[in-house]
């Protein structure tokens, strides 16, 4: 048996994380007066159905264990029974707050297996809708995280802008969430004409709205006291615990897949990656707020480019994978056959295994697919960033008080649908 | 990029721009420590268990939508049944690694296991493996030696069977409070 020692120094002064990193906080047996409290699974501030078993010594959390799985719905098993084509519906329901991203990562993985070229209009639209989803996800985070520690009005302000995003989704896709708008090969429908103006109006409004959020919170003493220096996670510990996305960037690691491994058209847009080095709840909040501004910039640039692409195809012209245009079914026998084959049997994806990772609002959202060459996936696995984020709770909870627990769990931004799948 | 020095390396596969290192299960921890310390793969993204029971039992026939498949001389394009490449053992564990550094890179470490075969835990290398390994146990029934807390994570503690196995019945879970009990 090989043993491996991890010797690491904390990257910033004042790190309180013990070495090695705890993944389950264990109660010191020498302590007496320990009270075990069951937290959840149906407490509103647990973001879904998370159960925490917390050992308290006075106000201090001395032991914590997370119990998950209450929202396990077996998406991966279900998708093995469905054709590749039908499987697109499921990923959006996995992480129901950043629904477009899971859909995107599945579609990108299937396209990678198929080696399918996607028209540029679809690429840019995916990016625009993806960034809208990122803002949506961060708004839900901000609203609920602030609500839980007392800033109730934040919730209404955030949901006011969230409504605008959902209106945009409704306009483009016909539904407000879980859109199934991304198809293997491109988009399900062309972009409606009114989208550009409404998206541009949103891009003008959003930076002002973010200013408002910051005006409410940045000088709010209660918010600052309850978030600064709370839930510390050093850069090394964040990496050791598999953190990605805002949680990692708040710990001082400049890591964003949109910059590091540009997918879609992220290498053609201008944006910054906000990085903060405090590693506390406050910095996780700052990263997400700044990301909302940057996402707005990306949306504005994408809309600009999309308008130039009017009349271009929005889905690849590969009749073995993509449904033929509806009007052709009345005149073309070939199209009818293709339509029938894709709908009944599904298209076949060549044998192989593939992993695609993208930068979702919660970090690296990944999709691992195995195909045996048949019309159904052999194995689908989602790399859930929330799963890793929730796992870091114990490390963040070191020396925390019970009231900090709410702030910390909220700041890691785990969505239980993503955790349990 | 060459991974010649990885301990226990059995095979290196390159496909679709991804590198897969097949490693001897007995030397997995050594290989992982080498990849972390020498190659700089400091972040473990995911551990995926895959069950290949019944792989290739149903030959794949008909058109396969690939650039190669569009070639009419390619057998699968003509509707002839074709069997996928056989697999050496029933299960794989795929460890997806990421190098968080200026020269970012990804690699997949894979081990092949039979039913009831165990593998050493990699928690000492990457603490994040804890929950991923519990998930692999829960969903696929792959046991990890040396895991500090080897219990189910997503299913109930008293659940029978491992749902993501290919021989696990679909829709066959016991119905509680039914009259036939």
Unreliable stretches of chain B, pLDDT < 50, 5 or more residues?
71-76
Query: Mind telling me the C-alpha Rg of chain A?
Result: 23 Å
What is the number of helical segments of chain B per DSSP (H or I, 4+ residues)? 2
How many strands, which pairing sense, and closed or not: the largest β-sheet of chain B? Answer: 5 strands, mixed
What is the residue-averaged pLDDT of chain B? 81
Radius of gyration of chain B: 19 Å
In total, the number of strands of chain A is: 8
Report the major sheet of chain A: 3 strands, antiparallel
Helix content of chain B: 10-25%
First-to-last CA distance of chain A: 33 Å
Written as H for each helix and E for each strand, in order along the chain, the element string of chain B is EEHEEEEHE
How many angstroms does the end-to-end distance of chain B come to?
60 Å
Structural class based on helices, strands and sheet pairing of chain A: mainly alpha
- The strand order across the widest sheet of chain A is 1-2-3
Please report which band the strand proportion of chain B falls in: under 5%, 5-15%, 15-25%, 25-35%, 35-45% or over 45%: 15-25%
SSE succession of chain A: EEEHHHHHHEEHHHHHHHEEEHHHH
